[in-house]
Design a protein that fits this description.
With 201 residues, the chain is of the alpha+beta class. The chain has helices at 3-11, 32-38, 87-99, 116-124, 135-138, 166-175, 178-187; strands at 17-20, 23-24, 29-30, 44-59, 81-82, 112-113, 130-134, 144-159, 190-191, 198-200. A hairpin with a 4-residue loop joins strand 2 and strand 3.
């Protein structure tokens, strides 16, 4: 499930932990404002997993010269959207709101899919001119280019009451290890400069 829905499930006790990448337009920060707002009264720990580039998938060669969020409002451009509740969709919606873009005028805004790979594939096949997603997916789909727009941060959220359980201790130990950073670096396109950073709420 997407980041927003993951936090909702966490709040309602349906999951023990969840990973989130939610940009807050008011503070220009990731995750922490959402933890404070959506998890009232729940002592929570957050450990940083990694950073990755969010941006646009466009056709190879970028024939429509797409370069920023304002291009979603161009009448000749059709997009494919992500589902409500995922971090990518929340990033897009906040950016458009801050720019004063009327989503009703965006072609394809109501057409949704549930993964980065699917969005990239639709653009590659000509079903849309633009989609939002992460850089890693762009490398797996031929026929598209990736335009980096913003570095986002992924955090793993858990209840503080679970911090000293054997399972949580093992997870935290691995995330803080050099081996975890090396695994991310082998996968490529991840920023590990803040990996292991820990905050409590």
């Amino acid at each position: 499930m997407g980041s927003y829905n993951g936090l909702y499930a966490f709040y309602n006790g349906r999951v023990s932990m969840t990973a989130v990448h939610l940009w807050d337009g008011e503070t220009n920060t990731y995750n922490y404002p959402f933890i404070r707002r959506l998890l009232p009264g729940i002592p929570t720990g957050a450990v940083r997993l990694a950073g990755r580039n969010q941006g646009f998938y466009v056709k190879k060669g970028n024939p429509l010269h797409i370069k920023d969020w304002k291009d979603f409002a161009r009448p000749e451009i059709t997009m494919i959207n992500r589902e409500r509740g995922c971090g990518t969709r929340i990033l897009l919606d906040q950016k458009l709101k801050l720019l004063g873009v009327d989503i009703a005028g965006i072609r394809g805004y109501t057409q949704e899919c549930t993964s980065h790979l699917t969005c990239a594939g639709i653009v590659a096949k000509g079903g849309a001119d633009i989609a939002c997603g992460c850089e890693q997916a762009a490398e797996e789909i031929p026929g598209i280019d990736f335009i980096p727009i913003q570095l986002e941060w992924y955090d793993l959220i858990f209840r503080l009451e679970d911090r000293n359980t054997p399972v949580m201790q093992e997870i935290l130990s691995y995330i803080s290890s050099d081996g975890f950073k090396q695994d991310l670096e082998i996968m490529g396109k991840y920023d590990v400069s803040q990996t292991g950073r820990y905050e409590e709420f």
